[in-house]
Amino acid sequence: MRLDVDAAMGRALELATAAQEWGDTPIGAVVLGPDGAVLAEAANEREKRGDPTAHAEVLALRAAAQVHGDGWRLTGCTLVVTLEPCTMCAGATVLSRVDRVVYGADDPKAGAAGSLWDVVRDRRLNHRPEVTAGVRAEESATLLRAFFRAQRGL
User: Among 41, 45, 57, 84, which one carries the catalytic annotation?
Assistant: First the structure.
């Protein structure tokens, strides 16, 4: 299935919504191949797996690497994610050689694609993906705010 970025973000939002079913923060990610075909998708599964590295981005990148390229290079691919990647996910994105990162809501507390840090565009690194921020940002932010309000009993 081929998706444009807006449709891919819509799918990432669906995945994010589903993550709440098992108590995870609602973040979803989709990896598109160079031709726009969906290579992989995932939602946060830290709570589900008991794994601090089971962020949606990392899970989606791992799955995409199994079906594209030489086993780990995701050259020509786009990572679409509902929330700005953290330092771990931004690092994984750089190391996987993704060409483009598209995200919804900014993360001023932990974002590493321009908000707090800018790992993905750090000139000291050998790969710097293009970044597009703010795609369906309000939908992503609304989902996250509602989740954290419910977690805090507000």
Answer: 57
